[in-house]
Structure formats: C-alpha cells, structure tokens
C-alpha cells in the first residue's frame, strides 16, 4: 500500500480533486446546517417568550424535539438506502416546510412538543442522509477527510444563524399567548425555515448522487507515489543484513 510521503504529492492531489467537488453539494451541506440551527436553537426561547410556557414545560418540549431529531435522522437516513439520497433529502426538506404552521401556531406544552417532534424529525431526517451522501460524492483521494471537513465548514458558516434569528425577532413584536407584545420568534423562524427548506430541495435536486458507491474499488491516495524500501516494506537486502547482525550478537553472547 503506497501512501503520501511528500507534501508535493498532497498539493497535486488537491489541485486535481478539489475542482471535482460538486458545487450543489457544498451549498446543500451549508443550507442543511443553517436549517438545523434556525429551527431548533431559538425554539425553547420561543416557547417561553411567545407561548408563555414555564422553564420546566419548555424544557420537556425541547427534549421531545431532540427525540424527534434522533428518530428522524435514523429512519430517513436508513430509508435513503432504498429510495435514494436526493429523494429522501428533498422529501424531508419539503415536509419540514409544510409543517411550519403546525410548528409555530399551536399553544400548550403537548401541542408544541408534538409539532416540535415532527419538525425535527424531518429537519434532522435530511441531516441523517448527509454523512453517507458526502462520503459517496467525495473525491477518492479524500474520502476519509472530505466528509468531516465539509461538515465542519457547514457548521462554521451556519453558526451565526441563531444570533441572526434572535436579533430580528427582538426587533419585531407580535401578539401571542405570551402577551400582547412579544418578540416575533415564531414568524422569523418560520420564514427563515421556509426559505431554507426550498433552498435545500433545489440544490439537492440539481446535484449528483452516487448511491451504493464501492470505495474499495477506488485507488488510494498517492497510489502512484514512489516509496523508498526499508525493513518494514520488505527490503530483502536490509532484512538479510539485520539477521546477520543478530546472529553475530547471539554467537558472541554464547562464547562469553
């Protein structure tokens, strides 16, 4: 097995493989990260400020929301193995958009828990497809590092989303269960989530898919590199010399 042994080899691989990364894939990963943060980071505050829930009730509803995320990620991620990566992500994104009214309009802990569960089921359901989708579309030379780097870049770009939602919501006031003048967390999160859901569906739809790609059939990074032989790679001459040195040491020890 030949691996990279010189920085120049890595530079060459980057020059060849980076342009091959599909542009829609880059945008889809970023949008999915933004959707995840936009739909959940401020939801507990929304339930407390706009819907008038106390801390305990809002916390319980948030727990159910996270349970929905775990269940949706597992089920939709697994389903994509049969229906296709893009189809699963598109349906999940569109379903999350359709659920927006049921997500922000109800009142009461039970209703908000149920709607939060279903919303995150589909939002994080789309996320459940991302890891394998990234792996299957990654350049062969970077199939190990590419998914992680892309994932973290998406998180970095989406990190201000909660702050943006909060800043906008706190400048706009609406009437809700929490009072006649409460921050507009619901409308802001709803509009942002709708825009992002449409963006995810569009970018995923025009992007490629390689479901079932066999990684073992691809050449490893640096497969053509010339690697100097040593004892570990099986250089016969060096191994012979090493054995002779061991025999000399052993015979000298026996004589003593």
Quickly list its features.
256 residues, two-stranded antiparallel ribbon, mainly alpha, disordered N terminus, 2 domains
Q: Domains counted in the coordinates: how many? A: 2
Q: Which segments are poorly predicted (pLDDT under 50) over 5 or more consecutive residues?
A: 1-17
Shape: elongated
* Largest sheet data: 2 strands, antiparallel
Give the radius of gyration.
27 Å
Rounded mean pLDDT score: 76
CATH evolutionary superfamily of the largest domain? MFS general substrate transporter like domains
What features would you describe in this structure?
The protein is mainly α. It folds into two domains: 17-211, MFS general substrate transporter like domains (Growth Hormone, Chain: A, Up-down Bundle), CATH 1.20.1250; 226-256. It contains eleven helices and two strands, in the order H-H-H-H-H-H-H-H-H-E-E-H-H. It has helices spanning 7-17, 23-40, 43-49, 55-83, 85-98, 100-104, 109-137, 145-158, 161-169, 185-206, 236-255, and strands at residues 173-176, 179-183. It has a two-stranded antiparallel sheet with strand order 1-2. A hairpin with a 2-residue loop joins strand 1 and strand 2 (179-183). It is elongated, with a radius of gyration of 27 Å. The protein starts with 6 loop residues before the first helix and ends with a helix. Residues 1-17 have low confidence and may be disordered.
């Amino acid at each position: 097995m030949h691996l990279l042994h010189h920085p120049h080899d890595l530079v060459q691989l980057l020059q060849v493989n980076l342009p091959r990364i599909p542009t829609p894939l880059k945008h889809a990963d970023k949008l999915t990260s933004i959707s995840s943060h936009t739909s959940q980071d401020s939801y507990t505050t929304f339930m407390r400020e706009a819907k008038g829930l106390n801390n305990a009730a809002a916390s319980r509803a948030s727990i159910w929301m996270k349970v929905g995320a775990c269940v949706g990620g597992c089920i939709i991620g697994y389903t994509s193995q049969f229906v296709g990566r893009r189809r699963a992500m598109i349906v999940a994104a569109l379903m999350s958009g359709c659920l927006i009214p049921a997500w922000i309009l109800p009142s009461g802990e039970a209703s908000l828990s149920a709607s939060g569960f279903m919303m995150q089921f589909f939002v994080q359901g789309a996320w459940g497809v991302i890891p394998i989708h990234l792996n299957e579309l990654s350049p062969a030379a970077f199939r190990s590092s590419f998914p992680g780097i892309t994932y973290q870049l998406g998180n970095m770009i989406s990190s201000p989303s909660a702050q943006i939602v909060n800043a906008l919501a706190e400048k706009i006031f609406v009437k809700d269960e929490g009072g006649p003048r409460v921050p507009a967390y619901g409308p802001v999160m709803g509009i942002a989530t709708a825009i992002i859901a449409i963006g995810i569906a569009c970018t995923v739809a025009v992007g490629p898919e390689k479901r079932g790609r066999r990684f073992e059939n691809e050449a490893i990074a640096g497969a053509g590199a010339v690697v100097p032989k040593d004892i570990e790679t099986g250089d016969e001459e060096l191994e012979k010399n090493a054995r002779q040195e061991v025999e000399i040491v052993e015979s000298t020890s026996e004589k003593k």
